[in-house]
Each structure stands twice: as C-alpha cells, then as structure tokens.
Write a structure and sequence with these properties.
291 residues
Length: 291
C-alpha cells in the first residue's frame, strides 16, 4: 500500500520538510521585514519614498514589463518550431535556448560589455553616433532579455510536444488561416503553460543582479534597479533603507509565488477534467447513446 510506512516516519519526514521551509523561506522573510521595520513605520516609508528608491522601483518594473512581450513572442515561436517541425539545426536551437541557464549572469554582462562597450566590437560606431547601450537602460534591457528568454520556451516545448499537431492540421484542413489556427486552437491549449513561463520570466527579470550590475554603471537615480539599490544602501550601512527596499522584492516574490500556485492549480484542474471526460466508461456511454 502507498501509506504502509510507519506513522513515526511520516511525521518525521513532515517535520523535516516544515523545518526546512521555516529555516530557508519563512525565517529569511521574517528577518527582512523585521530589519526593515526596525526603525519604525516612518523610517520604513521614508526609505521607500526616497527619490533614488522610487527610481529603482520604477526602472525594475519598466525593464520587467518591457522584456515580457519579447519573451512571449520569442518563446512561443521557438517552442512552436521545435515542437511542430523537424529541420536541420533543431538540436543547435535547443542548445542555444538553454545557453542562458548554463552561463553565469556576470559572464553575460561581460560579453555584452565587450560587444557594446567603448572599446568593444561596436563601441566606436556607437560612440560616433552618440548611442549609449552599456551603462544605460538599453544595455540593462538587453542582458535581462538574454537571461529571461528561455523560461517561456522551456515551459511550452514539452507541453506542445505532448499535444502533438493533429488539431492544428485539422484546423488548416478545414480552411482556417494560420492566425485563426493559432488563436482558436494553439493558444487555448498552451495558455496556462504560457502564463506559467511569463510568471517565471517576470520573477527573474525583477530579481536579476549579476548581468545588470556589470552593464548598469550604478548611476544613482538612473541605472540602478531595486537589487542594485539594495546593495548600495547595504554597503553604506543604511540597514533600514536596504531592508525596506529588499522587502519590496520579497513582496514581489510572494506575489509571484501565489500567482504560480494559482496557475499550477488551474492547470491540474483542467487536466483532471479532461482525464475524467476521456475515461473509458465515458467513451463507452457516449458510444452506446449514439444512434
């Protein structure tokens, strides 16, 4: 039987899991909010209303929202090509999608610095045309996009492969255009996986530190995202300001966790409903009722 283990073992495993969650999730969150409120609510809100803090929060949200549409388009296109078609270079494309997972974010920042920096490959041309990429917002957007673009594709590839391409082929054979097929067949089938990938990409975009730190220049009030702002305040021994800003990141992480849980629950619910509708008993009953 599945529950044949002794009760003491089940309680021990449950206790270990709860202790792990408390030590590595609940306790750090409590410490962040405790340190943020150590100076009182007035100091907490004063730190968040600071001009540099507001600029960091705004820039973090701007970069995350800016890269998400590109993540969706690139992720869906790459997943569709890999799952629905066979072509030369398919393995190479999968490897390139996984590349940001294998490369350190700091290395990614250095690569973009070597490409777009003043002494980089395109640096002289960019300087001659007065175009700033590194140590400016465009460079931060580029490295964030590079770091986050695999999440949507990696969520959709196994989902689309499992679904196959029979429904799309049937829609085309019935006269649907490519856009109609995508909107009425493909998109409803992948909507929860797509939303799940967007949530993960958004969380990574808001919390990215290494690559953004290399290309940002740490210009106060201009190129500091929220993680960089936290680092600067902490290095200046401004504990209240650092932890107040960190609490905003913690709240965003909690919101992301709740959204991720809701999406997973909805995905399981739809899967269970589909499995119930396709049970052999249901199929036999429907076949018997047909004339």
């Amino acid at each position: 039987m599945a529950n044949a283990e002794p009760r003491w073992l089940r309680w021990a495993l449950t206790g270990i899991a709860l202790a792990f969650l408390f030590l590595f999730l609940a306790l750090p969150l409590l410490a962040v909010f405790g340190e943020a409120l150590a100076g009182g609510w007035r100091a907490f809100f004063a730190a968040l209303k600071d001009r540099e803090a507001l600029s960091a929060i705004g820039l973090t949200l701007f970069i995350a929202l800016f890269v998400l549409p590109f993540n969706v388009v690139i992720g869906v296109a790459a997943a569709w090509a890999i799952a629905k078609f066979d072509f030369r270079g398919k393995s190479l494309l999968i490897t390139l999608i996984d590349l940001p997972f294998a490369v350190s974010p700091v290395v990614v920042g250095l690569v973009f610095l070597l490409i777009f920096g003043a002494q980089g490959l395109f640096g002289p041309w960019l300087s001659a045309h007065d175009i700033k990429v590194v140590f400016a917002v465009p460079g931060m957007v580029l490295v964030t996009l590079f770091i986050t673009f695999p999440f949507v594709a990696r969520e959709l590839i196994p989902l689309m492969q499992a679904q196959g391409k029979d429904e799309e082929e049937a829609a085309i054979s019935l006269g649907a255009t490519g856009w109609q097929m995508f909107r009425r067949v493909t998109l409803p089938n992948i909507k929860w996986g797509l939303l799940y990938g967007v949530i993960l990409a958004n969380a990574r975009a808001m919390g990215e530190f290494g690559a953004v730190s290399v290309v940002s220049g740490h210009i106060r009030g201009e190129t500091n995202t929220l993680p960089l702002h936290v680092e600067i305040l902490y290095n200046e021994y401004n504990a209240v300001g650092a932890f107040a800003s960190a609490s905003v990141l913690a709240l965003l992480a909690l919101v992301t966790l709740v959204a991720k849980t809701l999406v997973e629950w909805q995905m399981r619910k739809e899967t269970e409903m589909l499995d119930t509708a396709l049970t052999p008993e249901k199929v036999d009953q429907e076949s018997e009722t047909r004339p």
